[in-house]
From TrEMBL:
It comes from Sphingopyxis lindanitolerans. GO terms for molecular function: preQ1 synthase activity. This is NADPH-dependent 7-cyano-7-deazaguanine reductase. Belongs to the GTP cyclohydrolase I family. QueF type 1 subfamily. It catalyses: 7-aminomethyl-7-carbaguanine + 2 NADP(+) = 7-cyano-7-carbaguanine + 2 NADPH + 3 H(+). One of its GO terms (cellular component) is cytoplasm.
Length: 156
């Protein structure tokens, strides 16, 4: 890659034993070269059992996250993404901060053509909070399937 500020393409986690990071900030996301760099396509990660902590009560919060992106020169390595998301289980943050923070970090580090994240949070206090962020308008011609998470009705 021509930009030396981009993270190195030597995965730390792939094929190696890895422990859950102590925090999202301590997590290292790995990126590998996009094998279809000239093609416009969508990659989706669904994390239906995402967990973080309420910053006020310390109680667990649960969400179904859906991350969609159109790769640029790199793709995120899935094991490192799983460890990054798992590091939120002891992280105290509001739904908005967690959802947007995950999207921003992936976008800023991976530099995809486009990225969106949907955070479908389960209710606390009787109100589900859904949080959505995207990096901008999707590229023309990119197929954008529905994220497939129903509005809250016991979301099962």
């Amino acid at each position: 890659m021509s930009d030396s500020s981009h993270p190195p393409l030597r995965p730390k986690h792939l094929g190696q034993p890895s422990e859950l990071p102590a925090s999202p900030e301590a997590a290292i996301l790995d990126y590998v070269a996009n094998p279809r760099v000239g093609d416009l396509y969508l990659v989706r990660f669904a994390a239906p059992e995402f967990t973080s902590l309420c910053p006020v009560t310390g109680q667990p919060d649960f969400a179904h996250l859906v991350i969609d992106y159109a790769p640029g020169e790199t793709i995120v390595e899935s094991k490192s993404l799983k460890l990054f998301l798992g590091a939120f289980r002891n992280h105290a943050g509001f739904h908005e901060d967690c959802t947007v923070g995950i999207g921003r970090r992936l976008f800023d580090e991976m530099r995809p053509k486009w990225l969106r994240i949907g955070g479908y949070w389960y209710p606390r206090g009787g109100i589900p909070i859904d949080v959505f962020w995207q990096s901008g308008a999707p590229p023309e011609g990119l197929w954008l399937p529905d994220q497939g998470v129903a509005p809250y009705r016991g979301r099962g």
